Amino acid sequence: DMAEPIQQLTRNNNPQERQSIPFTLIQRKEKLGDLLYEKRQYGKAKWACIKMKEKQYEQSICLGFMKLMRYICEQNSSGLYLGITVPIVTIVHTNEAHSAMTQAVTVAYYLPEVLQDEPPHPFDSDIIIEEWPATIVYSR
């Protein structure tokens, strides 16, 4: 099921073709010279998002990522490979009291700059295009 998206990604796997999402570094946490995480602020932008709720957190992330890869690799209204932006963001959801994680996660792909004004529509109805306000993200 993922053979074509993986082949497309492999054909287009030049690191110089990956677009890093512009951000402002707010904080960097290291321990003994190793990076633990960065706190970043991303500007307002459009993202392709999918919310998944599998039995295991890891399953939700993997399935969400695979669905986004299909969108990136031609299963969109343009019929074209959209290009990779890094990082792919995973949002962990909590219960109403914010005391525990839920099974739901959102996996999100930043649309490249050239697609921000008119993003291609996904064929998968589970994927939605959202405009996010400036956002704080923890990255590791």
From TrEMBL:
Gene3D superfamilies membership: Regulatory factor, effector binding domain
Record's signal peptide: none
InterPro entries recorded: Reg_factor_effector_dom_sf, SOUL_heme-bd
GO molecular function, a single term: heme binding
Family: Belongs to the HEBP family.
Protein name from the UniProt record: HEBP1 protein
Source species of the chain: Polioptila caerulea
